[in-house]
Specification:
It is a single chain. By secondary structure, the protein is an alpha+beta fold. The chain has 5 helices and 5 strands. 50% of the residues lie in helices and 14% in strands. Helix 1 packs antiparallel against helix 2. The protein is elongated and about 95 Å long.
């Protein structure tokens, strides 16, 4: 009987230690998740503040007709006036605006390793009838809307990453969507679809 009682006591202690170990692991996991979410929320707030600052600066400079802001989604839109028609060349006025945005891009990218910027080109649905090969005049060669949209995004990116080093600039990514993503409620042929969108993304930290 004494041996039986002793064994029962040992088993109870072992079970208690197992339960405590599981609880400690759960508490540690919850704490890590809270810290991760807290850091993500802080990064999102920084992005929101950054977007407000950029919007104010563009408005103060009278350049809000060139750059639109969607604060809720963390996105800015470089409107059609940024580029000459049928061209990837950026106008002189637009170059000044993008030069003012470059330090903000630097602030966002260097503020955290969990950030990315996507520079996405879009066009209307007017098709390219003849390939464009005059690089000097059009700042690119293209034979369809996809290559034109990608070229516009590329030219905008060149100015936006002016303050970044080679490694940092790898987190600023170019994509060309052609006429595949017209604006909601806007006819595909509308000139407002000719745009470059700059999407700021903050990812939750990995465990």
């Amino acid at each position: 009987v004494s041996i039986s009682d002793l064994m029962a006591g040992v088993m109870a202690v072992v079970m208690l230690m197992l339960v405590l170990s599981v609880l400690q692991n759960k508490v540690a996991e919850v704490k890590r998740e809270q810290e991760k979410n807290s850091g993500y929320a802080a990064q999102q707030q920084k992005l929101n503040n950054l977007m407000h600052d950029m919007q104010k600066e563009m408005t103060d400079q009278g350049e809000d007709s060139l750059v639109g802001f969607d604060l809720a989604s963390g996105k800015i839109t470089l409107k059609d006036k940024i580029f000459a028609r049928g061209s990837a060349c950026i106008t002189d006025q637009a170059k000044d605006a993008l030069a003012r945005l470059a330090p903000r891009i630097e602030e966002f990218v260097t503020g955290s390793s969990n950030t990315q910027v996507f520079v996405e080109g879009h066009t209307d649905n007017l098709q390219v009838n003849n390939p464009v090969t005059d690089v000097v005049r059009f700042c690119t060669v293209y034979d369809d809307n996809y290559t034109l949209s990608a070229a516009r995004a590329r030219e905008a990116r060149k100015l936006l990453i002016a303050n970044l080093n080679a490694q940092q600039s790898h987190r600023v990514i170019v994509a060309g969507f052609g006429d595949s993503q017209p604006l909601n409620g806007i006819p595909p042929g509308d000139e407002r679809n000719r745009r470059v969108e700059v999407q700021f993304l903050t990812h939750a930290a990995k465990n």
